[in-house]
Amino acid sequence: MLTQYSVGTIPATLDQVKVSEITRNDRHRVKCLFLLGANDHVLPMPPSGHGLLDPEDRAALQQREILLSDASFDPLDNELQNIYACLAQPTDRLTVSWPVGDVNGSQLRPSFVVQRMEKLFPRLRVTREDGSYRRRLPATALELAGEDPALRQYFRRRGDYDRVLDAMDRGRALGRGRLSGPAVEALYGRSLHMSASRMDQVKRCHFGYFMQYGLRAKDRRPAGFEAPEIGTFIHYLLENVAREVKTRGGWAAVQQPELRQLVREYTDRYAREEIDGYQEKSARFRYLFSRLRTAAYAIVEDMAGELAQSDFSPVAFELGFGGKDGQLPAVTITEGDQRLSVSGKVDRVDGWLHDGRLYLRVVDYKTGKKSFDLSDLRYGLGIQMLLYLFTLEQEGRGYFGYPIVPAGVLYHPAREVILKADRGIQPEKLQLALQSALRRSGMVLSDPQVLRAMEHSALESPHYLPIKVKKDGSIADGVASAEQLGKLGRYVDRLLHQIAREIGSGSIDADPVAHGPQDRACQHCDFAAACGFQEGRGGDRVRYIRSVDPGEFWKFVEEESREEESPCR
């Protein structure tokens, strides 16, 4: 609670309790001192990391007689001085305390101060409070009465707390329950309109979906200007550069200097047309945006290297499904009385025309580190690219003019790669490490002819595709046969029906997915405080995503495909 206030007052008398922040401590002698909140990453407080110049930059500028704030000032050193002065103040008694967990139940570690004191004073013992002092005040004791039968009986005998105790009883009996049919219709409408992110949220946690898209709750965020969205800029750049290259004869015909000129042109155009008041932005903002150009060079050149040795070429950018501007209809299914339609856009569609059929692969640019994961797919997460691929198979002929054959989906890394390596690393090893970091992830058709069309060296030494060539020449990882893709399409359709049923039935269960105890949806959820998740209480449960190998995954899809399914349209 003290973190909500800025305290530090001049004492009015000689004998009083004074409360202050450690940075505003007057360093006068006191008899007793209580140091609260002595946790790691609080004492000492880590540097904020804000600012354009780091200490080395400041020191270099000072050497050139460019005066700034003192480059020798070390925030960590100043923090340690404050800690030392604080601990040296008391003459009679020093008490250091720290919480062992936060409000979300996550474990908190003590500061290094605690370990240092235990080392200096071997007889020192850590005492863990049991909360008994809270029973001495009516307000805090009443709060504990919900869990303590003795306290509950005490307040019930007094008679003047019956109303509060009855409210506790009602609250304890409440569960999350389910939304009624009219409530589902009032919150979501007669027809469910979904996007890729909404589908992922349903499968990630039903209560989180209810809060975000049902109640439309939003986390409170401080107002302010932010740097340009890197993802939006990269998408804009790749789309426009690729379209321009196509008009100039393709990727094999455009050399690096010409590519870099295109990057500069479209970067400047983005700044003028997409960033309001770019010239009025701060110098720091413009500098940070200009640094994106360096990363953009590498990203565009990597894409150029891939497409220059591929028979597949971009045939569509920002291809829309549904909505006002969609070139293709939304993906629509009906489950009982519930109608679900999924709309969205594909970053890029590559095609290869062969024997009168158009082989298509869906490409999604990723500025983060997300990768294609069969384990996530097994639990209904990350299905959007496959959904669009199979929709293209059914609806694409009318748009492209040829029968469509699904050839795969790829996540394309669209970020600057920073490698951890020794300074003396050999250039060959560095190049291999870069290739590994920039390799696409996804799933492609296992037909050797298609693989060679995607990457001319795919069957010998693939650099871009997410496949491996074994010593016997067979292909492993990241491939699926036409039959398997067909079954996967029916599995994706089944997932859509499942999502429609779950929302239509009013499910608001707190059932977050997790890859492990330290990695679950709750950790990054804006609605954790409203949810109050407790494992085992009512229907609250964590659904752990178990890692599956390709053999297990395809066996699961095979079993799912045997069950009778409703038609997609």
What does this structure look like?
This protein is of the alpha/beta class. The protein is 40% helix and 15% strand. The chain has a six-stranded mixed β-sheet with strand order 4-7-8-9-10-13. Strands 3-6-5 form a three-stranded mixed β-sheet. A three-stranded mixed β-sheet has the order 15-14-16, with no helix packed on it. The longest helix is centred in the middle third of the chain and has 26 residues, at 283-308.
Could you give the topology of this structure?
Layout: E1 30-35, H1 55-63, H2 75-87, E2 90-96, H3 112-120, H4 138-144, H5 149-158, H6 162-173, H7 181-188, E3 191-194, H8 196-204, H9 206-214, H10 230-247, H11 256-274, H12 283-308, E4 313-321, E5 331-335, E6 338-342, E7 344-354, E8 357-366, H13 374-378, H14 384-400, E9 404-413, H15 427-438, E10 441-445, H16 448-454, E11 468-469, E12 475-476, E13 479-480, H17 482-504, E14 513-516, E15 519-520, H18 528-531, E16 543-544, H19 550-562
Parallel strand pairs: 1-2, 3-6, 8-9, 10-13, 14-16
Antiparallel strand pairs: 4-7, 5-6, 7-8, 9-10, 11-12, 14-15
Radius of gyration: 30 Å
Lateral arrangement of strands in the main beta sheet: 4-7-8-9-10-13
Low-confidence stretches: 1-8, 223-228
Structural class: alpha/beta
| Share in β-strands | 15-25%
Largest sheet: 6 strands, mixed
Give the helix tally. Answer: 19
Q: What would the average pLDDT be, to the nearest integer?
A: 83
The 3D shape can be described as: globular
Number of DSSP E strands: 16
Distance between the termini: 56 Å
Helix content: 40-55%
